[in-house]
From TrEMBL:
It comes from the Bacteria. Residues 251-484 form the Amidohydrolase-related domain. Gene3D superfamilies: Metal-dependent hydrolases (3.20.20.140). This is Amidohydrolase family protein. It comes from Allomesorhizobium camelthorni. One of its GO terms (molecular function) is hydrolase activity.
Amino acid sequence: MDFPVVDVHCHFFNAADVPVEGFVRYVMLGEQEPEFVSARNGPAYLKLLNAFIVFLVVLLSGAAPSAKEEILILNRATDRPTRAEIERRKRRQLQEAVLKLDQLVRGGRSTQEFTTLRFAVPPNYEGLLAEFSASTGLARRGASMTEGEADTIATVLLNRGELQRYIAFAMLMLDYRETLAREYIRIFASNRYVSLVTPSILDFEKWLPGEVSQQSDQIDVMDAVQAHIARSTGIHMHSFVGFDPRREVQEPGTSLALVKRAILEHGFVGVKLYPPMGFQASDNKGPIETALRRLYDWCKDADVPIMAHAENSIGAGCGYGKKANPVFWRRLLSTNDYDNMRINLAHFGGFDEVMRPGEVASSQSSCEEDKFSGPSWESIIGKTIDSDKRSNLFADLSYFSELVSPEVTETYRKEIRRQLGKWIRQYDRNAAHLMFGTDWSMMALETNYNNYIPRISEQLTLADVGPDQQQNIFWKNAARYLGLARRGQSRDRLAAYCRNCGLDSAWLSAFDTA
């Protein structure tokens, strides 16, 4: 590619930054359905799935470096562990999780010691351990598992089997944020495709069970990571900060104050919202709506873009996935109070309501309200852009596994391409409102994400998306959305941040032609 790709949607958080129990259940396993050899569906499958949830919670809990720990390392206030030391620590954590699974099988430990989660179907720990041990040759014994046996199972989990992708992802979540950023660069940007990355940090603490690094510390550590990556690689990184209206209601002024600090002082470029946690973009009752309107008013006045999860997924409760419906953004914009506010509705392109009507959005949900129904969310976004003339509304193509996953049939992929091409012709002929994103590290849950950028480009070409339209998708639209295509508050803030960090701000001029 001969143009500068902008990735508007990715993540470099680790397990210390998210409530582990909720993250495992609703995010990590919310859509990706693990496969077990001994059971494919029904109660037997659910028992294995629940045991695997507990195992992953044990694996991820209390082992990832906190934001404060990493800040000390990045600021050289404490020694940085060697790569070998980090890998040994992660390997030991996996071994310990296997040993604790053995203890759960033998009745020496209880589920409640490791998680507050409750299960309608009891976890089958013995069945899960049998799955883990199947290809190791280890026989079931009366005595407790030895460390050597746990290490043998750990080797199998890391290198083969149906569950390898989840274990690999969990091990990634045990690492340093800077390491995740550098792994991203190795995969997506080593060939200089990517010039700007805008990773998001999350704020799920008030909605999901589990302890996390303080949001203020997460801001500080990403500030440090941004500067380190820019200095050492030349790839620029400016993050999105999470805003939680529930935190703002429970602790008035705190969440908005953190947003302002991140944007005004730490080189962050925008705000991330997760409606599936339990709120809507508009039409909420009482103080949640007030908190959101305070955020919107400030973002409008300060020229700050907002990104929102806009897919029926990762709902923290029955029907919560549908709280991300773009119809609530359409209603907000219909007030004409926020015409100049730039909004990105993330995870565009699955056309789930058309492709999967009546299916349940989450693999773990039996809730009727979670089923895909009604008009496609893509059509709602299209009508808002085209019919309502909302020039500042965008959507990103992040985690577009439907186009690149080897697990998707070519027939299904072809229909997704047809739907996408039809949408562009009907609502956005110049593709002036779609943007590229990877959603890495979440994309690491897929079996094959190498060469993701050229593969997406290839699929867009097959969908009759031309070269000029692809330039819009891969960088020009992002430049407009982020406020970098012209002089203004957003671009001026990033230029000032670069100067304060001793970084050259001339790179921003690359967006002048967007």
